[in-house]
Amino acid sequence: MGDSHYTPTFERLPEEKKKRLLTVAKKAFAETGFAATSINFIAASAGISIGSLYKYFRSKEDLFLTIIEQGRDLLEEVLGGIVNAPEALPAKIERLLQAAVSYSEKDPDFVSIYIDCTTQGLAALAARLSKSIESIAAEAYRKVIMEAQGRGEIDPAMDPGLAAFCLDNLLLMLQYSFGCRYYRERLALFAGPGASADPALVITTTAAFISRALGYRAAATSARDT
Amino acid sequence: MGDSHYTPTFERLPEEKKKRLLTVAKKAFAETGFAATSINFIAASAGISIGSLYKYFRSKEDLFLTIIEQGRDLLEEVLGGIVNAPEALPAKIERLLQAAVSYSEKDPDFVSIYIDCTTQGLAALAARLSKSIESIAAEAYRKVIMEAQGRGEIDPAMDPGLAAFCLDNLLLMLQYSFGCRYYRERLALFAGPGASADPALVITTTAAFISRALGYRAAATSARDT
Description:
2 copies of one chain form a homodimer. By secondary structure, chain A is an all-alpha fold. Chain A has a domain at 71-225: Tetracycline Repressor, domain 2. Chain A is 80% helix and 0% strand. Chain A is built from 13 helices and no strands. The first copy, chain A, has helices at 8-11, 15-36, 39-46, 50-56, 60-83, 89-106, 108-117, 123-150, 160-179, 181-191, 193-196, 199-213, 216-225. At the A-B interface, α2, α7, α8, α9 and α10 of A face α2, α7, α8, α9 and α10 of B.
């Protein structure tokens, strides 16, 4: 990859060691945020010297960006599997929401790091970070929308970019709601403590909300409604 | 208010002085985040001694919470005006989105502070903060949904709490997208740079998305569609 942020020395480490170091760093960034996390703390937590750490990453920023790229690669892999499947739109949306929730529950550290990336303290990195992460999702969802429009499944008049934006807004908020304490409390306040404890209910309700918003349900049921 | 976080000494200050101090503190918290903002820096920026500042607020946390309460009071006032107006649902939703965007553009510091509140670094405050801020929105939107259901305007089968949750998810993301750099870049990546520069287009598209998701459009146009 042309945009890798680690050194050839890191590249040559055994996979197990690379993975352990990135997991330790991810946890530290997730818990205290980029600004408040010291690279000395990460080195100590990983049981390596600060000198070695600087042989792998030239700066704290590069280490952080390597973790972001890892998240981006995972996102790309997960989205690819869902977006290219030969399913109708409602099933695809439900699978996207399920994936969002299950990855957030499995790996809340990525959710915390993502939210940290969006804060004003990291504004200087914002453009690079957003281009790296958001382009994957934006392209995948625009494709889903345009293909469904092409098949006549949903409203052909919707702007695919803005439809993809609304879809991702709801997906992102489910990731936050199941991967981060503040948003989990918020979900409980909106929909009762039962909702926080029942991801399947939140997923099916949100999926139905999206399908109908895109004009799917209207097309499928207008004859029956009349 | 029983939950105020300032001292009687602060209460007795002239309005102008109170306002100036809170504005300076808000800007500092917005730009560097709660954790990285020192109370000494705030006192110096406001041109008062640290001793005086501690006579007004017992801790940095109390000063922060006072600013949050200020944002909550504004939210309550703005929502009250819209929610209780005798309008049909689509007009109400559009006004909510307009208010979200215009307050974010006018006062992006509140958006930055809100996002900071949701980070893991403030997890210890998360429950108190979310209860204070989110309850206002949750109650207002549930009321909007249930009244529209009562008038037969939208799908009566939707759970009002989860419908309010979806509505607020989209509202919140518009606030982020017009009040914060990271999300502004993200909007441009999803919908093109034109969308970031055209809040009215994003608002009307999102409003139409929500109205249809709630079953409004389906009911209003199913006869024409058939």
